[in-house]
Amino acid sequence: MGHGGNVFEELMADHREVEEIFGRIQAMTVQGQELRDLVDEVTIEVVRHSVAEEQYLYPAVREYVEGGDRLADKELADHGRVENLLKQLERMDTEDPQMSPVLQQLMDEVAAHVEDEENNLFPMLRQACSSEMLGELGDKVRRAKAMAPTRPHPAAPDTPPANKLLAPGAGLVDRARDFVTGRGRS
Length: 186
Known about the structure:
The protein has helices at residues 7-27, 33-64, 68-91, 99-128, 131-147, 162-181. It is an all-alpha fold. Helix 1 packs antiparallel against helix 2 (33-64) and helix 2 packs antiparallel against helix 5. The longest helix has 32 residues, at 33-64.
């Protein structure tokens, strides 16, 4: 979960981790519990990552990048679509014929989001902020991920201050549920 480094190094390491899980999903020949475990794993990683971005990255974009409100709103819309897909997958049995198309839609949405962040948003923020500030953002993102929910909550607030107040509580409940059910231990 915590990779270290500035905000870009931290978030890009998350991006590579999610891409690796997607690769394992695409390489699968059989479904069942192994697929469920990988979907749970990618859900946990994407939700934690998204919550941390919503708490710290996008507010920084709003504050320091010209046109940052528009950029942050676009990224939040991307997160909303991804979170709804994750919620659908959470409810699906792995044998459901819709599982594969929804998974593909998730992979496509995440890939487009990652490409946009890495090629557009990150360079703009890098230009607008000092390396010290980017390092502090990395620390904040790591702390947020440690406390973040592990399950999709599409109706939860995605902007401060409400998201910073509610996410730790939801995260605690999610981690307790995960502990009891064994989810995410694969």
